[in-house]
Each structure stands twice: as structure tokens, then as C-alpha cells.
Specification:
This protein is mainly beta. Helix content is 4%, strand content 43%. The longest helix has 18 residues.
Length: 423
């Protein structure tokens, strides 16, 4: 926004203007990837009711297709991917208006069908978005696809990699870290996996790290503090083949590594609070193992603080906030633990079954079940349910929060709730 001002403005004035404008700008574009800012799943919005019914919606539109990707937002637009019901051999990136849900444009991508888990879809990876492009990560039989679509719905560049071997389909989403677009691609023996950093403007490779094939991974990388990197951040990957690894997003250099890691599959993302990285793995509908690593005492060789093998999620990513980790389990049990000790603060049943990851809005936890129930729980030491709501269809996608408005993708519809315009 500063570029619109005349050069005659003195440097001090420009700095003052930047300081006043940037926080507002950052809040406008707050949910630009899976689970929002740095993948934390945390929003400070206070304009979303914890108890609601359909009369409280700003709007509700039918999506007429399948997909579990989360909505992402930029300015007055929402982006999501979908396999349309009337054209199952194609995948669409749709651009919708935040005002009323109307379609502004739709970009269509043909693909060859491939094997998915019965609970997965061919539109499950969440796009990432910045001022230039929407980054559309997907798959076709025998290849991985990454396309950059501009804000007018035109392809700016694309990359394709041969080899696609995942027993449950694709799920890991792209993320933007500073000036780097990062993708994860863990595959089976014949797939040939890698993780990669690309220039988001051109699609050219900045760095690439080969991944030992063996087991497919489905987790979207986490982003945590790293003061000695140019961006001030690190990207954390993990899988049952590679353990857990922190990488400099600017160069691809390994900052630390905990390996060997797990004997189960990674689906949820790693999370971070109070100097602790926490990651879970599982199989067969439940969490089976986890690790908590202390990045505070020795950031180059983190110590294992604890491991847990029960009462942990498999598919939903935890929420890490203010020194606590909230483990919203697939089976509808919510467990709150101390991040540094692993001690249980409370463990309570909220009911239902969950694939969608919880998010934290204005100090409250929101969980959305496969049965279409939305449960709101107060964050903190004491368990308290603040709201129990029904949205009319199951929820598999993780919701998004933008400009104080909540966007819920159900199996059939997209719903807008809250914000300044709510009744």
C-alpha cells in the first residue's frame, strides 16, 4: 500500500504510515492457507456467535460437487477446490465473493482418476494464496500438479512431476513462508518423494530435498520460529519414514532432525507453543503415537520431552496456544495438556466423529463433526461448552476465518457466519 504515496514524502513519514497500515492489511488477508496464519488455526475474531441457527447465516450456497479442501481468502474473495458433480473428470478452483457466495470465476483442470481412501476426495488439498496467485496443488494418475492461477482466473505457470503413489490419495497442502512456496510430497516405494521450495512468482525451484520412499505422508508442514533464518521461520516436516525435521525455508538447509521417528502414518500437521513442537501419527481411525520436542533448550538437537500413545488425534491437527495443546480426537474426546510436561489438564467427551481440524476463535475452540454438529468450547484450564449447533450436513473440511467472518464448508454447502454484517 505504501507504493501509492509520492516520493516527496520523507522517509520518517513513510515509516510511520507503514507502521499504521500494515497491521490492518495483515488482518484483511488473514486466512491464506490451511489453518490460517502459519497454520496455527488461531483467529482473534470476536464477531462470530457461539450459538447460532440458519437465520444467523449471512448466506449459504450449494457447492454441487465433492471436496474436503478448506476455503482460503484474499480481500473480498474466497477460493476453494471441488470436483463438480456433473463433470467428475475435472477439478475446479472456484473464486467466490465473500459478500454473497456468488461465483466470480472458475478455473477447470482435467485429471485422470486415481485411487482414494473412501473418506478422501480428489479435491482435498487446500490452496494457498498471496497478492499475485492462488497456488493449486493437486494430482492425476501418475503425476503431481502445481499450478499458479492469477486473481483473474488465468494460469500464470505450472509444474508437473511424474510419479504418484499414495494408498489414500493426496492431502498435504502448499504453504507460503516469506518468499518461498513450500510443497511436501511423501510417497510410496514407486512414487519418488521430495519436499521443495519454489519461487512463487515463477515456479522455479529454489531448493529440493529428496525423501526416502517407503510410506506416503499426508500432513501439511508446520511453520515455527527460527531467529537465525532470513525469514525468521522454519518449516517442520514429519512422516513415518523420516521422523521430524526442521528446515530453513529460504535455503532448504536442515536445522535439526529427530530420526527415526514413527511406525504409523502422518496426517495432521505439527504444532508449536512454548518452545515445543508436537506431532501425532496414527492408523485405523485413531492416534497411535506422538512426540513433543523442546526447541528452546537446544534448537539444533531438540530433546524429546515426552511421547504419548493414547488419547491423541489421528486426522485432526491439534491446537497449540498459550502453553497448552488441545487434542480434539477423531472419536469426539477433547483432551487439554500442558505443552511442556504432557500432563493432562482435562479430558472430556464432546461427542461425534471428526476429520476437520479444530480452530480457535477469540479464545474459544471450534470443532466440526462428520455428522454436521459444531461444538464450541471455552479455551483454558476448565472445560466448558459454550455452544452446540447443527449445520445440516457433515463437515470434513477445516473452516476459515476472514475479516471476522467464519466460512464453513460442509459436504454440500458453503456457509458464511458472523462478521460486521451479521444480524
Amino acid at each position: 500500500m505504501i507504493s501509492q504515496y509520492r516520493p516527496m514524502l520523507c522517509g520518517l513519514t513513510v515509516i510511520a504510515l507503514a507502521a499504521s497500515l500494515l497491521p490492518a492489511d495483515a488482518k484483511v488477508n488473514e486466512w491464506t492457507r490451511f489453518r490460517g496464519p502459519d497454520g496455527t488455526g488461531v483467529s482473534d475474531a470476536t464477531t462470530i456467535p457461539t450459538q447460532f441457527d440458519e437465520s444467523d447465516y449471512n448466506w449459504k450456497i450449494e457447492l454441487d460437487g465433492s471436496g474436503h479442501s478448506s476455503p482460503v481468502c484474499w480481500d473480498d474473495r474466497i477460493f476453494l477446490s471441488i470436483v463438480p458433480a456433473d463433470n467428475p473428470g475435472s477439478r475446479e478452483l472456484r473464486c467466490l465473493s465473500t459478500a454473497d457466495g456468488s461465483t466470480i470465476w472458475s478455473y477447470t483442470q482435467a485429471f485422470e482418476d486415481y485411487h482414494n481412501h473412501k473418506f478422501n476426495t480428489s479435491a482435498s488439498t487446500t490452496p494457498a494464496v498471496d497478492a499475485d496467485h492462488i497456488y493449486f496443488y493437486s494430482a492425476s494418475a501418475g503425476e503431481i500438479i502445481l499450478e499458479a492461477i492469477d486473481h483473474d482466473g488465468k494460469m500464470a505457470w505450472n509444474r508437473r512431476w511424474k510419479g504418484f503413489s499414495m494408498e489414500h490419495g493426496q492431502a498435504a497442502s502448499p504453504i507460503l513462508v516469506g518468499d518461498t512456496l513450500v510443497i511436501a510430497n511423501d510417497q510410496l516405494e514407486d512414487g519418488g518423494g521430495f519436499v521443495m521450495g519454489l519461487d512463487p512468482k515463477t515456479g522455479k525451484t529454489i531448493w529440493e530435498k529428496e525423501r526416502r520412499s517407503g510410506k506416503a505422508g499426508y500432513s501439511t508442514p508446520g511453520v515455527f520460529e527460527a531467529p537465525r533464518t532470513r525469514s525468521g521461520k522454519q518449516v517442520v516436516f514429519f512422516s513415518m519414514t523420516h521422523g521430524v525435521e526442521g528446515v530453513d525455508p529460504d535455503t532448504g538447509k536442515t536445522l535439526w532432525k529427530q530420526d527415526p521417528g514413527f511406525t504409523f502414518r502422518s496426517v495432521g500437521s505439527p504444532v508449536y507453543t512454548a518452545g515445543v513442537v508436537f506431532a501425532t501419527v496414527g492408523a485405523g481411525g485413531g492416534g497411535k503415537d506422538s512426540v513433543a520436542l523442546d526447541l528452546r533448550s537446544n534448537p539444533e538437537k531438540p530433546e524429546i520431552l515426552y511421547r504419548m500413545a493414547r488419547d491423541i488425534p489421528y486426522v485432526p491437527t491439534p491446537i497449540a496456544h498459550d502453553g497448552k495443546i488441545y487434542l480434539w480426537q477423531d472419536s469426539g474426546i477433547l483432551r487439554c495438556i500442558d505443552a511442556r510436561t504432557g500432563e493432562t489438564v482435562y479430558e472430556q467427551r464432546v461427542g461425534g466423529n471428526y476429520f476437520s481440524s479444530p480452530i480457535l476463535i477469540g479464545g474459544n475452540l471450534w470443532g466440526m463433526s462428520r455428522e454436521g454438529r459444531v461444538v464450541v468450547v471455552k479455551a483454558g484450564d476448565e472445560f466448558e461448552i459454550l455452544g452446540e449447533n447443527e449445520v445440516g450436513a457433515g463437515v470434513h473440511a477445516t473452516p476459515a476465518v476472514h475479516r471476522g467472518t467464519l466460512f464453513i464448508r460442509t459436504d454440500t454447502h458453503l456457509i458464511s457466519l458472523g462478521g460486521a454484517s451479521r444480524r
